[in-house]
Write a structure and sequence with these properties.
This is Amine oxidase. It is an enzyme of class 1 (oxidoreductase). Its EC number is 1.4.3.-. By secondary structure, this protein is α/β, with parallel strands linked by helices. The chain has two domains: 190 residues, FAD/NAD(P)-binding domain; 255 residues, Alpha-Beta Complex (Polyamine Oxidase, Chain A, domain 2), CATH 3.90.660.10. It contains 13 helices and 22 strands. The strands form five sheets. Strands 1, 2, 10, 11, 12, 13, 14 and 22 form an eight-stranded mixed sheet that branches. The structure holds flavin-adenine dinucleotide (FAD). The site of flavin-adenine dinucleotide has 39 residues, from α1, β5 and α13.
């Protein structure tokens, strides 16, 4: 282990043993793991003015007394709670400990619409569920037999689900797939899409509870942080933007946009995959090819909630979800969620629409007025017999443009491997990585960030204290793979496989 504290250093950089880059769930959990092993010499460096990262809230609209409501712009659900006697999602454990107010999302509380208004196609939701049974078994078979991965689209097709151009079936499919992963079935890995689903919803439970708490969802994380950080703790550097990370086997130097710097024996980078993919931070030396390939391979999705407040609740106040099938465009403002319903913010007259992927990019790039006009057109199609007033407030985040996130959460493309993902997790010398995206089990979820932050903290604490708490996979270096092989060897590029001409053939060249 590098013994930073004994190293000679003449630089004026602030010195610490562990620099934790980012104060989201993974960063705070990493710091907690270090503290739990009495490693108190760390610094948390955070871009924003508060901790929480992608679990963030804001004020919106007004209640009858003129006070704003609090809405969650990022993470909103505790997903997969746990059952009596079984393992429990740690976020659910914290939600209970800190009395985070939340309500069960009842996915059967749904009304379905198309461009003509209310049309009941909920039977298609049940139909999709039947295909899902076959679909997930197929994925399990592919995994256990080590067969080639394919897309979720291919998996759905082979299970018999073919929505074709039926836009209501497309809306159902969006509700069942894209809404969770923020990518289409074509863009998602069959094996790892199903693995991720199983590990959260079958290991814990299929329940999702939506958080609506005036203190914000991240109140629990602040509670956790307060167990090892004092008020105004000088180890938490807020409003501090990292621009360069220089690493070696001796330690890491982190430089900020104001020119200040921190030298550490180790660093844990918890920046999102979107941040890593957008060259916000320069790594010196450049990250090795195996690391860079993994950063390039995995996807950063975008999930956008668009909140509207009206002066009345013109939709059914007893229904939680409203599904809309656009006649022309799959994923065009498909899911609407009422917050005006009992258990959420009753009487608030707030409803929000969710879009993901390409629609998110499109909508996040346009102004509120343009989006409001599109939303109102959809609502007027859904409720043709009601005179819908104009909204009194609109708000939505631009996740795809946020320089500290560049997207919402990660997803696995078809055809990748666990080894490739392991390279996303693995450390490069003294520089470690953690976050939602480094979790192969729970990518995209708060609990994924929590487990990964804890593991990175424990691995480093194990090096420093010589006592390894991470019993299953050890401390110090993560496993990584220098080479990721494909499935077809060069000699198999031949006529029998439909390629009699060498893929390297160049006309008029002496060499093939
Ligand atoms: C819209 C949306 C909806 C979601 N819904 C759910 C949900 O319902 N349930 C669920 O379980 N999960 C949900 N998630 C996912 C969940 O929010 C994430 O998995 C989790 O918050 C990620 O935590 P993290 O610590 O890995 O990353 P982050 O929260 O991104 O933390 C990284 C930190 O690094 C900081 N940072 C970035 N760049 C720099 C820099 N250059 N210098 C200094 N600091 C920097 C950031 O400000 C951030 O605080 C949702 C996410 C979004 C965006």
């Amino acid at each position: 282990a590098p013994s930073f504290r004994t190293r000679e250093s003449n630089s004026t950089c602030r010195k610490t043993t562990v620099a934790i880059l980012g104060g989201g769930v993974a960063g705070i959990t990493a710091a907690q793991a270090l503290s739990n092993q009495s490693v108190s010499d760390f610094l948390i460096i955070e871009y924003n003015g508060d901790i929480g990262g992608r679990m963030t809230h804001t004020n919106f609209g007004e209640d009858p007394d003129g006070n704003p409501y609090v809405i969650e712009l990022g993470a909103n659900w505790i997903q997969g709670l746990g059952v009596e006697g079984g393992p429990e999602n740690p976020i659910w454990t914290f939600a209970k400990e800190y009395n985070i107010s939340n309500t069960y999302s009842d996915y059967s509380s749904i009304l379905t619409y198309n461009e003509t208004g209310y049309v009941n196609y909920t039977d298609m939701l049940d139909e999709f569920d039947e295909y899902w049974g076959v679909f997930e078994q197929d994925a399990g078979y592919i995994l256990s037999e080590n067969l080639q991965d394919r897309s979720v689209r291919a998996g759905l097709y082979q299970s018999g689900w073919k929505p074709k151009k039926d836009m209501m079936a497309q809306a159902v499919e969006w509700w069942m797939w894209d809404w969770e992963t923020s990518y289409s079935p074509e863009e998602s890995s069959f094996i790892f899409g199903i693995t991720g689903y199983n590990l959260t919803f079958y290991q814990y439970s299929e329940e999702n509870n939506l958080v609506v708490d005036p203190r914000g969802f991240n109140y629990w994380l602040k509670g956790v942080a307060s167990t090892f950080l004092k008020p105004n703790d000088t180890r938490l550097l807020l409003n501090t933007i990292v621009t360069d990370v220089a690493y070696s086997s001796d330690g890491v130097t982190v430089t900020m946009d104001d020119g200040s710097c921190v030298e550490a024996a180790y660093a844990i980078c918890t920046f999102s995959l979107g941040v890593l993919q957008n060259d916000v931070v320069t790594f010196e030396p450049e990250l090795p090819d195996w690391k860079d390939t993994s950063i390039a391979t995995f996807q950063m999705g975008t999930y956008t909630k668009i909140f509207l407040q009206f002066n009345e609740t013109f939709w059914d106040p007893d229904t939680q979800f409203f599904l809309y099938a656009s006649p022309t465009s799959r994923g065009y403002y498909p899911v609407w969620q009422s917050l005006s319903t009992e258990g959420f913010l009753p009487g608030s007259n707030i409803i929000f629409a969710t879009v993901v992927g390409r629609e998110s990019y499109r909508i996040e790039a346009q102004d509120d007025e343009t989006t409001e006009a599109e939303l109102m057109e959809v609502l007027r199609e859904m409720f043709p017999n009601i005179t819908i007033p104009d909204p009194i407030a609109i708000k939505y985040p631009r996740w795809s443009l946020e320089p500290w996130a560049y997207g919402s959460y990660s997803n696995w493309p078809p055809g990748t491997t666990l080894e490739n993902h392991q390279n996303l997790r693995a450390n490069v010398e003294t520089l470690y990585f953690a976050g939602e995206h480094t979790s192969s089990q729970y990518f995209g979820f708060l609990h994924g960030a929590w487990f990964e932050g804890r593991e990175a903290g424990e691995r480093i604490a194990g090096l420093i204290t010589s006592e390894c708490m991470n019993v299953e996979s050890g401390c110090g270096n993560y496993t990584s793979y220098d080479v990721l092989h494909g499935t077809t060897t060069l000699d198999e590029y031949n006529a029998f496989n439909g390629m009699p001409i060498s893929p390297f053939y160049v006309a008029d060249s002496e060499d093939e």
